[in-house]
Specification:
Length: 454
């Protein structure tokens, strides 16, 4: 530990240190504090920001404003229901700050972060200190949730602790456009196959428009990497869920038409036919003054983003409220190093949470922070840590982080493939099976909560 930090961290009973106030850190601090334990929460903003951060608020959403599906037959939807049962702060904020997004849960990102910041700063058991932490505390109970953009000094300390340099990959965020600059004579509101509310705007393309756009996209200039990313580029790994649209396009001329630009289930009201390709826009706020270009995470230069994305029909005069960005993400090679309680194998009182553990996604990060926070509080109360059931998404993610899968460890979203299979087959196909998995998981979680009083 650095000499300047020797007296920063509490070692007294019933006090826990949390480092980082992103989704995972905020959730962890809240869960600990709600159990009567004093928390000292360190957050380096506003003194220092990462290249992706813009706001001084906690739990900033740096990519999409969507927390994905609400449906119980989707693993992300099931995870949300689990977090609600566990009194998750992140889910309280998401439900309070939601904006229309069909079958998905999207939020007003500023209201969402403000809600969480207010809850944390005004909690009687939480003390917030604005300071960058550059070393892992030597003792006491601690949750490190410094995020996938952990500052270099702390990342180096984490690497020394685990005896490896860890892994890195690059993440990308999509642009946001001003609603008043969208041409609504071309863009139309419609849900696929007419199901649900028409919460998305659709920008249709014919074949010639698509081919012209495709050619411009794959030949557009990408932004240069920051100096601190140049060495990491040698081992560049792009996580599939956040792949830049220009990288995806280079996989093949029709890749986008089967991905973020798929036209299936949509009818252009001007022609009465399905478009050749279609770009979807999702609202960013309740007032519907801002729209996110769905699936268009990018690392193009700002001038190229303006040029290429204004080739999309309906966006010819679009004003961009935020341009796409690409930034470095770092995560731990967690199997064998972290337990399903998110504590370290070699030091039970040291926990990690968030995307740096290998969970991928907003809700998944909140889930890891919740589990880490509950278990850190239990240690502070001289109780054993608990392992969540592998029939739940919460428990299956924790299990995956601790054991990994086949081959090289990679970040993982919530999915039913991680959950313990059903004991018997269910008739009715995939949807019926997923619903049965949901019902079993919720039932076992309810019993788990009663047994362990979590």
């Amino acid at each position: 530990m650095n000499s300047t930090e020797e007296n920063l961290f509490p070692t007294v009973d019933n006090t826990v240190t949390v480092i980082g106030a992103g989704l995972a850190g905020s959730e962890a601090a809240y869960q600990i504090a709600e159990r009567g334990i004093k928390v000292i929460l360190y957050e380096m903003k506003p003194c220092k920001k990462t290249p992706a951060h813009r706001s001084d608020l906690f739990a900033e959403l740096v990519c999409s404003n969507s927390l994905r599906s609400l449906q119980k037959t989707n693993a992300a939807g099931m995870l949300k229901n689990e977090l609600r049962m566990l009194s998750s702060l992140i889910m309280q904020a998401a439900d309070a700050c939601s904006v229309p997004a069909g079958a998905a849960l999207a939020v007003d990102r500023n209201a969402f972060s403000a809600f969480i910041t207010e809850k944390i700063k005004n909690h009687p058991n939480i003390t917030v200190i604005s300071r960058e932490i550059t070393d892992i505390p030597d003792g006491g109970i601690c949750v490190i949730a410094s995020g996938p953009l952990t500052s270099d000094p702390l990342a180096a300390s984490i690497s020394r602790f685990f005896g490896s340099e860890g892994l890195s990959f690059f993440d990308a965020a999509a642009p946001i456009v001003e609603a008043s600059t969208i041409d609504f004579n071309i863009a139309f509101a419609q849900s696929r196959y007419g199901k649900g509310d028409a919460d998305y705007l659709n920008c249709p393309m014919d074949k010639d428009q698509y081919l012209g756009f495709y050619d411009a996209l794959i030949n557009a200039k990408e932004a240069e990497l920051h100096d601190f990313d140049r060495e990491a580029q040698k081992e560049l790994t792009v996580f599939e869920g956040c792949m830049p649209v220009e990288v995806m396009a280079k996989r093949g001329i029709d890749t986008l038409r089967f991905g973020p630009m798929k036209p299936v289930g949509l009818t252009d009201p001007r022609t009465g036919r399905e478009p050749y390709a279609c770009v979807q826009l999702r609202t960013e706020n309740p007032e519907k003054t801002m729209f996110n270009i769905v699936g268009f995470q990018t690392h193009l230069t700002i001038p190229e983003q303006r040029r290429v994305f204004r080739m999309i029909p309906g966006l010819e005069n679009a004003e961009f409220l935020r341009y796409g960005v690409m930034h470095r993400n770092t995560y731990i090679d967690s199997p064998g190093r972290l337990t399903p309680a998110y504590s370290t194998v070699n030091r039970p009182g040291l926990f990690f949470a968030g995307q740096m553990t290998g969970v991928e996604g907003y809700i998944e990060s909140a889930s890891s922070g919740l589990v880490a926070g509950i278990n850190a509080a239990r240690l502070a109360l001289n109780k054993d840590t608990v392992i969540f059931p592998d029939s739940t998404v919460t428990g299956s993610l924790a299990s995956y982080v601790s054991r990994g899968g086949n081959g090289k460890f990679q970040p993982m979203n919530a999915n039913f493939g991680l959950i313990r299979p059903l004991e018997q087959k269910v008739k009715g196909g995939k949807s019926a099976r997923n619903e049965a998995l949901h019902e079993r998981g919720i039932q076992e979680l309810s019993e788990f909560i009663k047994i362990f009083s979590v």
